[in-house]
Amino acid sequence: MNDWKADLADLTLFEGGAPWKSFERLRREDPVHWTPEPQPNRGFWSITRHADIVRVERDVESFSSEVGAVALEELDEDQLVIRRSMLETDGARHMALRRLIQRDFSARQLAGYESFLRTLTRSTLEAALPQRRFDFVKEVSADFPIRVLVRLLGVPDDDADQLISWGNRMIGNTDPEYADVLADSKDSDAYRELPFRSPAALEVFNYGRALAADRRGGEGEDLVSKLVNRVPEDGTPLSERDFDNYFLLLVVAGNETTRHAISHTLKALIDYPDQLRRLQGNPELIPGAVDEFLRWASPVYQFRRTATREVELGGRRIGVGDKVVIWFASGNRDEDIFEEPNRFDVGRRGVDHLTFGKGGPHFCLGSALAKLELRVIFEELVARVSAVRAVGPSRYVRSNFIHGIKTLPIEVDLY
């Protein structure tokens, strides 16, 4: 690679959005790339090709989510135990935790939600669109999924803004605009036992604990009631710590990823107005286009695994204990898998994207809900909007974990 390096640990590389050119060159020249990190971290392997990412996802014996963590931060044994969620759990316990609410997120179970989602979408759009000029993130893409999460958790609509704020403060723990304390600062050491090193996590814990206390022993159908009143199939009840981390995961995953997928899709329809016209003339394309929306958006850049044994991958020798980072965003633009991967094409079929993971036990639990939300919101939006224009620059979350759009100022023409 001569003197060129793609320092994927350098957050400035991500301040303007995804570094697609860097990913492209890594796939071509060094697809299993060693990225050094500042102390106390030791560095990590960046896996950027689709096929290699799938191999890591499926080989859970060699690449563990539990031995280390799924974030780049290197945790000591105490932190691993205290902060462990379903994401950082492998094997039978992972499946038992997953199955606690897996059925509630199945496509069949969610089919009954479509009428509710459509009503909610119309309410969101009818409040936003008459303004003609507005921030799409604030008025639409953040508003809609959080209202869904409020319903699933069984909490008041008035709590929606607080849930959004908590998600921003935790997921944006490397963005000065969002973080209470930047994760890479010495000040964050005071919160080292909290997820994302964020004091917002403690606020989420307290909020969830109050809900749990109120619903324990009841017969509610909301997700909180199910977490506190169901016993995992392995017979080991959730501890208070298990509940805290599970609830926090729902708050983050139930809002942030779908929100950013919606924002990236709308931005793509602005950048590719011919594709908006295709959907307007052929709205029946939208259900099939959802996978292209997800490929294009790649709302989560990466997850980390830890090598449990020496492995050869892409001509490189990965050692025991090495951090192995699978860059879903890069795999979603792999030229070996997708024809013209840098072209947004709502007619693309057989979209083998990695946005939800691929083939492993950690495949996204909320994938069916995310796809349903994306389909419904764009079916409703495309039917109402004749044109969409950007009226200012998009601003991105400063993060190499979440591929997020903070603001997307737009102007719309209505039918």
Description:
By secondary structure, this protein is of the alpha+beta class. The chain has one domain: Orthogonal Bundle (Cytochrome p450). It contains 17 helices and twelve strands. The strands form four sheets. A five-stranded mixed beta sheet has the order 1-2-8-5-3. A hairpin with an 8-residue loop joins strand 1 and strand 2.
> How would you describe the shape?
globular
Number of strands: 12
Mind telling me the CATH class? Mainly Alpha
pLDDT < 50 runs, ≥5 residues: none
What oligomerization state is this entry in?
Answer: single chain
Widest beta sheet: strand line-up: 1-2-8-5-3
Q: Which CATH-level-2 architecture? A: Orthogonal Bundle
What's the CATH topology name? Cytochrome p450
Q: Which homologous superfamily in CATH is the superfamily?
A: Cytochrome P450
State the major sheet.
5 strands, mixed
Beta-strand residue fraction: 5-15%
How many H/I helical runs? 17
Distance between the termini: 52 Å
* Domain module count: 1
The average pLDDT is 95
Calculate Rg over CA atoms: 21 Å
- Helix-strand sequence: HEEHEHHHHEHHHHHHHHHEEEEHHEEEE
Helix content: 40-55%
* Strand-pairing-aware structural class: alpha+beta
